[in-house]
Amino acid sequence: MSAVHTVGFLGAGQIGEPMVERLLAAGHRVRLHARRAEVRDRLSAAGAELVDDVRNIAACDAVVSCLYSDDQMLDVLPEVVAAMDTGTVLLSHTTGAPKTLDRLDAFAPGGRAAIVDAAFSGTADAVRAGRLTVFLGGEGEHLVTARRIVGAYADPVVTTGKRGSALRVKLLNNLLFAAITQVTLRGLAAGRALGVTEDTLLEALAVSSGGSTAGRYIAARGGAEPYAAAVAPFLRKDLAACRATAAEAGLDLSELLAAAQDGPMDLGEVTALENGVVR
User: How high does pLDDT run on average in the chain?
Assistant: First the structure.
């Protein structure tokens, strides 16, 4: 039986809420900070301990943050990092820029926070099934704790290297996913023009060589239009983080970004590097 931990949790949204449910089902004690009353009510009934002050989730074995963006992280997590016990590990599920994790170090009493970037790939249904894919980047002893926590809802868990590496893997994954999605949406439009319905083409692609995870997600959402409306804000945010991260590394990703941004979904402008400067 895996070790039982006290876990602070922040960000119980569409993905975070089933994470909390899985943590509780695995026997972990969860201390939850949540803004929405309906979420607090549901997860309190499931066994989570509610805290009003976000700093009160810091005195745990681990803190799981499932916030939406870098801006939210920088708004909320400095207080958490400042209040964390020496042995507490912060797991960040946010897809964003690796440098954001480094900025949180300034708030750690020792000048270096115990942070593991725990970027993930998958859906709320994958969380509920315990089949979310999670990438972990961090120091060895911190990764041991992180694996015990995410094991409640993740399989496989892929260790990617030092802190920040998991985010770089996730950003590249989402860059490729965006490109595949755009191509798939164009293919569905071509099918409609040829008299092939979306449902028929998606059913065929699901069992054929032209299929993809993007195609399966589009089918699950009920077609191209509702899917694009749901996923575009997330991909737009992630591609912006990918552009910034590549720029910091002096890497020109304009060709891949062009493939990701050329399609029915508006995912932002293509940028390239010239003498190390984004243009």
Answer: 93
